[in-house]
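Regression test case RT-17, inverse folding.

Input:
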């Protein structure tokens, strides 16, 4: 009962994709805004992860794309769908994970 999950990662770069993050700050964090964002991310084939954040950003969207045009188009779709609820966003190339853990080791 101690282990509650298993993480499996895919080296998407070897498949010709690049991992990007869209960092999103929202004006109002409402259930309607979040529902809309979840639905949008579930429909988009490039989105692999959606994380609700605390701190500088409200959400992080991780997407695997074959070209950079797709990530900019995705950011534009997110901002358009969320309308005035989307205050700001930024795109960064996903950083390499050096260490990942949910417990102190």
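Golden output:
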């Amino acid at each position: 009962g101690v282990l509650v999950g298993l993480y499996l990662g895919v080296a998407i770069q070897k498949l010709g994709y690049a991992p990007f993050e869209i960092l999103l700050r929202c004006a109002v964090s409402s259930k309607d805004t979040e529902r809309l964002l979840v639905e949008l991310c579930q429909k988009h084939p490039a989105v692999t992860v959606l994380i609700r954040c605390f701190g500088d950003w409200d959400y992080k969207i991780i997407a695997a794309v074959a070209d950079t045009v797709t990530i900019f188009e995705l950011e534009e779709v997110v901002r358009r769908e969320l309308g005035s609820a989307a205050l700001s966003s930024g795109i960064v190339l996903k950083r390499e994970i050096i260490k990942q853990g949910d417990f102190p080791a």
